[in-house]
Every structure is written in C-alpha cells, then in structure tokens.
Amino acid sequence: MVTESRPRISARITAPATAPTTKPRTPDSTPTAVPSALSGAGLVMSYSAHEPPALRGVDVRIEPGEHVAIMGPSGSGKTTLLHVLAGIVRPTAGQVCWRGRDVGRLRDAERTRLRRTDFGFVFQSGHLLPELHAVENAALPLLVAGTPRAQAQALAASYFPVLGLSGLEGRRPGELSGGQAQRVAIARALVTSPAVVFADEPTGALDRETGAEVLSLLTAATRSSGAALVVVTHDDSVAAWCARTIRLSDGQVVGVAR
Dihedral (C-alpha) 119, 125, 127, 130: value to the nearest 10 degrees? Predict the structure, then answer.
C-alpha cells in the first residue's frame, strides 16, 4: 500500500526556468482567447423514447472564472448536464453556446478539438493510463495535440510541485495512492490552460481528508489560472468549495444558491 504524503498547498502555479517559452502556453501566461461565459438554454436530453428525458429544459450559465457545483441525487441529470455542456454528447434539444458557437452543431472533430484545448476534465477515478508514467499521463493532452514529447513533459512537470507530486514524475498509476493519482489527473486537466475545468465526482473514490486536500488543490489551481470550475457532486461538503450551487431533480433545475 502506498503511503501518501500531505502536500503543502500553494495557490500559484509557476513554470520552472527550464520550461519551454513557446507554445503551448505556460501556466502563468495570458490566455490568447477572450474570457467567455459558457451557457446552455432549453437543454433537453433523451437517451431513449421509452425513458423519461435526463434533462428537461435546463437553462444554465457559467461565468468566466466562476466555481459552480451541480448537485442532485442519483438520476437527477447532473452528469448528463456536464456531458452536454462539455460537448461530450449533443443535446436532443436546446443550445450550448461557447465563444459565439453552438457546440452541438460542431462536427465531431471540432468538438474533440474543443475538449483538448478549451476544456479540462477530472473524473472520479482519475482515468490514468496504467502503462504511462505520471508525468506522461499529465502531458497526454499535449502529446495527442502533437506537442513534442520533451516540451509537453516539461510543461506537465511544472505542475507537479504545486500539486504535491514532486519526485513522483516517474511512477506509474499503480504506484500512486488514490489522492496522488487524482492530483496527476488535475495536472492533466490544467496542462493545456483550459478556460473551463469539468470535475465529475472528483473525490468520490477518496476518503474525506484526502478528498478535502484534492478539492483545495483543484480550486486553488483553477483560481490561479483563471479557469472556471464545474463540479458535479451529491455531497454538500464538496459543493461548499464552490461559490454557487445549482440543484437538479428529475432533469430540472430546482434551486440555485450562493
């Protein structure tokens, strides 16, 4: 069993002196795109004609840099809403607008590119590739986009100290604790300097203490980079890390609280 050391949390991310100065952007560089709200209007999602819709006319708006929790019981539509907003699936009806474009009308290749550049993702179990070292997992979005390996790994490694991962760059996922693996997933989500980070139950597989550390790192890192954060959860203690909470029930918004 791997024993996890508790990281010293820092709210600022800086690249090492040896990090590349050309594309992709370093963590402290100014994003090239103008900040934009992410909005959904009249969102309906039906997976089958024989089942009730997962979303029933949802309206939502995520402001630049805002931290928002989407809460609800199992089956309320919260993960479906995240998938629709992130362009993973197209809504049955309604519109998702991002930087002047209707995401649902984009071609598959365009939506894939959008998820590689503008959006970052943290999932419940990390979804790290077991055959890759930690730094390679963190660099994966850059490698897929064609960034040279040395450059991609240098930029990914620049996130490791602030996330409490120093010295773990060469470990594989099986050699990491659950909290360490989630912090690698956070580095992977941030490495392209996304405008929005989506986190689906990011602490669901962790104990409460480790989960709180992961949330502290995730919120501090997105705040430092200026990224908006959308967290799907059923846990009030997780939602408390966000400035606004949207509650869903049976595919509809039933409350918004700050």
Answer: 150
Q: How far apart are CA 214 and CA 9, in angstroms?
A: 10
Nearest to 165 by CA among 176, 155, 174, 152: 176
Q: How far apart are CA 157 and CA 173, in angstroms?
A: 16
Whole-model pTM: value is 0.84
**Two tokens, residue 123:** 């999932």
| Alpha-carbon span 204 to 125, nearest angstrom | 8
pLDDT in single tens digits along all 258 residues of the chain: 444 443 343 434 333 333 333 333 433 333 334 458 999 999 999 998 888 999 999 999 999 999 999 999 999 999 999 999 999 999 999 999 999 999 999 999 999 999 989 999 998 877 899 999 999 999 999 999 999 999 999 999 999 998 999 999 999 999 999 999 999 999 999 999 999 999 999 998 899 999 999 999 999 999 999 999 999 999 999 999 999 999 999 999 999 998
CA-closest candidate to residue 99, choices 108, 87, 82: 87
Alpha carbon 167 to its chain centroid, in Å, reads 24
